[in-house]
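Hey,
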Amino acid sequence: ILDAARDRLAAGVRTVLFLDEIHRFNKAQQDALLPGVEEGLITLIGATTENPWYEVNAALISRTRVMVLERLEHDALSALLDRAVGAPNGLAGKIVLTAEGRKEIIARSSGDARGALNLLDAASAGLAAGGEVTAEIVARAAGGRGTVYDRDGDQHYNYISAFIKSVRASDPDAALYYLAAMLQGGEDPKYVARRLIVLASEDIGNADPQGLVIATACARGVEFVGMPEGRIILAQATTYLALAPKSNASYTAIGAAMAHLNERGARQPPHALRDASSRNKRNLGHGDGYRYPHDAPDAVLPGSLMPEGLEDLHFYDPNDRGVEGERAARLERLRQVEEPGEDPQPF
């Protein structure tokens, strides 16, 4: 093809090369296109249903313009169905597409033109002249599932992202919608459960420590029971976590601590806190000055246990939501203690 394009170009004729499903070319095959694109021998148009940034070589992507074709909206699909029903060489005069049938096709096609036309064709098959395509007939023709989903592509990431963000935003209805779409699309329920465990710590944390217990129990239950009953366990955990008070204080705290270490390195713990399990270590001063908290009133020691010079450094900043609000008040009192038992309020 490239050789023929070079001959055409010499005669003043340019070549457009259209490659459907370009992601099916392996790396070496895609690399073979680079010289033709770079030399201007061809105008390359590649079509793919996959994410091109993942499936097409970076060198080829950098020499092209990526145009994303979104799923069709309701009005566009409706116009498409009008043309199909009214086409002289198609279904014109043979069937009647009812309003409810139209809505059912549009809803089940999930923005896919080919899916809508195929479903219309299947629903109208076997109808007598003038027969009506109703919502019930469309549902039977669809054969059940109407969810467009891929477990390894963009939809996998888009739906799990929407699911997590809905739980984070305390919207149980939206979270259940995306959960149902994933499960109906064949998503691995254990994957969803694992994401809930992360969310329970990242977005709820100590505002409701029970959230992590629920999420962990959910993962175990899904693994033990399997599907389809596992959907009930996932739904319970999802609604609980969606309605739980939210805090990302622990998530932010560990991020701040790691950023500090990356910037300034790690200092050694004070000698009092170092391992003193052997005589050699004790001879080096390990454990010198260590005070056993349980010997102090309320088992609280004054001051900071941070390395020397970092005594005033704080990472954890709890909010006042849920259980964490109580912990925040306790932490504030703890940080103000200068002598054991000085704080008049019990810990």
